[in-house]
Write a structure and sequence with these properties.
two-stranded parallel ribbon; 65% helix; mainly alpha; 10 helices
């Protein structure tokens, strides 16, 4: 199914397509175009504790690097959808700053890389075209899971990371979180449910 056309006055989709095809100038243009909004969003989300450890641009720089290095590549048809995705990742990253966020990065670095041309399509106007990727469904499903995981609340991501990436048992997870083992198991199952719901929403074009 053909990819959607972006509005004439919104170059977001064209810029992202060029970026994923290797055009670094398109990426630079996209970032510069969104930088004022991203800076404002970061400033709004910084609490007193984070402000004591860095300024707005420090945290914004880290988040942009995280999006570029670890988030599965995706295409959106308009600026608003791009901002909702990146803004959610930004907010979660700010809430996850510290040792936990560092562990998440290291865990993600140990994951197998996704195929280079696996690109997800997130657009309400193309709900039936869940992805333009040419790869097998297993790679595509993994990409959707990784993108959805980036958009989960930090507590849910931490539980999933400890269980799925670090292979910890619920007894140890409970000890780390200072909660009973059964509570850890219940929270993990709820986190998986929210992850699955997020995947469904993204595939349907809802962010």
């Amino acid at each position: 199914m053909p990819e959607p056309d972006a509005p004439d006055d919104d170059p977001t989709l064209a810029l992202m397509q060029r970026w994923h095809q290797g055009d670094q100038e398109a990426l630079h243009t996209l970032i510069q175009r969104e930088l004022p909004w991203l800076r404002m969003r970061t400033r709004q989300r910084l609490g007193a504790n984070l402000r004591a450890h860095g300024n707005t641009d420090d945290f914004l720089h880290e988040v942009l690097l995280d999006v570029l290095r670890y988030t599965p590549r995706f295409l959106v048809g308009d600026q608003d959808t791009f901002r909702r995705i990146v803004g959610t990742i930004l907010e979660n990253a700010l809430r996850s700053q510290g040792d936990f966020y560092g562990r998440m990065r290291r865990d993600r670095q140990r994951q197998s890389p996704l195929p280079d041309d696996s690109v997800l399509l997130v657009d309400q106007r193309a709900r039936t075209a869940t992805s333009p990727s040419r790869h097998a469904s297993r790679n595509e499903e993994e990409a959707w899971l990784r993108l959805a995981l980036e958009m989960l609340a930090p507590d849910d991501r931490e539980l999933i990371a400890m269980r799925e990436w670090q292979q910890l048992g619920f007894t140890e997870i409970g000890a780390r979180l200072a909660i009973p083992e059964n509570t850890a198991r219940m929270r993990f199952q709820r986190a998986l449910t929210r992850l699955a719901d997020r995947v469904v929403s993204l595939r349907r074009g809802f962010v």
